[in-house]
Amino acid sequence: MRRIGKQTLFILLLCLTGIFAGCYKEQGKQEGYLPSKATSKTIEAKEETKKLKIGFSMDTLKEDRWQRDRDLFKEAVEELGAEVESVAANGDDALQILQAETLISKGVDLLVVVPHNAEAMATIVNKAHSSGIKVLSYDRLIKNAEVDLYISFDNEMVGTLQAEAITKLVPKGKYVYIGGADTDNNAHLIKRGVFQVLQPFIDRGDITVVYDQWSKNWNPEYAYSNMEEALKANDNKIDAVIAANDATAGSAIKALKKYGLEGKIPVAGQDGDLPAAQRIIQGTQTMTVYKPIKALAEEVAQIAVRMANGEMIPVENKVNNGKIEVPTILLSPVAVTKENMEETIIKDDFHSKEEVYNK
Predict the structure, then answer these.
(1) Where in the numbering of this chain does the Periplasmic binding protein domain appear (predicted)?
(2) E strand segments, 214-324
(3) Distance CA 70, CA 67 (A)
(4) For 27-66, how does the pLDDT look when each residue is reduced to its tens digit (9 = 90+)?
(5) Domains recognised in the chain with CATH numbers
(6) Residue 358: what pLDDT?
(7) Of 47, 82, 100, 166, which one's alpha carbon is 20 to 30 angstroms from that of 235?
(8) 273-299 in b/e burial notation, b at 16+ Cβ within 10 A?
(9) Structural contact between residues 224 and 213, judged by C-beta atoms closer than 8 angstroms
C-alpha cells in the first residue's frame, strides 16, 4: 500500500476543515444563527432598549397637593427605571382630552389619568385601548369606561372621618355641607360617607342639614358664595360646617370671618393642605383628613411600571363606574386634629413643623 506523505495529509485536512466550515455556515443560515459580528450588534441593541414611558394626564397643578403628587410619582417611577411625561389641564376638559391624545400618539406604554370630569375622560380610555395602551385611574375614578385599574384612598371613609369628628363636637344643631365638584366621583363618595354618619342624627331630629350645595370645579370662590348663602338663609345661626376639601373649607372660613364667626363654628376639610394645617393650629379649622400621598404615588408608580411591562395585577376590590366593575386598590386616610398633627402630617414630613406653626 502506498503511504500518504505528510504534505498530502496536511492538504487533505485543510480541505476537510473548509468543507465542515461551509456546512456549519449553511446550517447556521437555516437554523437562524447569526455570525459573531451580528450577534454583538444584537446584544448592543438589547442594551439600548428604550425605557418604559408612563403618560401622566392631570386635572390641575393649581393646588399644592397635586404638585406633590406629580413630583412624588415622577420620582418613584424614575427609581424603577422608567420615565414619566406629565401634563396638566388646570380644569379644562377639552385641553385634558387633547393632552391625553397627544400622550397616546407619542406611544406611551401606559396612561395614568387624574380626571377633571369623570365622564368626559371616558373617551380617552377608548382611544388609549384602540392603541393598545392600558389606563390607570389615579385617585379619581373615570366613569362609564373600561378602566383597567383604579387606585385611590377610600373616599367614603374620608367623609366618614369628617362627620364623625364634627358630630362628636356638635351632636345637635344646624349643619352646612359644602360639596366639591359635581363632576368628580370622589366628591360624591365623600358626601356619601358624610351622610351615612349624619343620617341617624337626622332621623332622630338632632341634626338638620340646612344647606347642601356643590362647588363647581372645586372652585373655592363657589364655596365662599355657598357659605354666604347658607349664612344669610339661616340668619347666621349655623352650628357646624363640613367641606369637601381644605380649599373649600378655607373659603367657608373666610365667609364665617366676614360675619364674625371665624373659630366659633367647627369646620371640617380634607387633603392636609398647609393652610388647613395652619388653620387647625390657629383654631379656625377643626380637622382635616390627611391622605398620605407619598404612599399613593409610590403604589401607583410600582403598579404602573408592572402594567406597562404587561403584568397582570391581581386585586380583590372592585368599584362600579357605571359601565364595569373596575379593579380597585384603596388606601386608608387619616383624621388629623390639633392633637395628632405632629404624629401624622409633621412626622411624615408632609409639612414641616416650622411651616405648620408659622415659625
Answers:
(1) 54-311
(2) 240-243, 267-268, 288-290, 317-320
(3) 5
(4) 443 333 333 333 333 334 434 567 899 999 999 998 878 9
(5) 53-147+293-331 (3.40.50.2300), 155-291+337-356 (3.40.50.2300)
(6) 87
(7) 166
(8) bbebbbbbeeebbbbbbbbbbbebbbe
(9) no
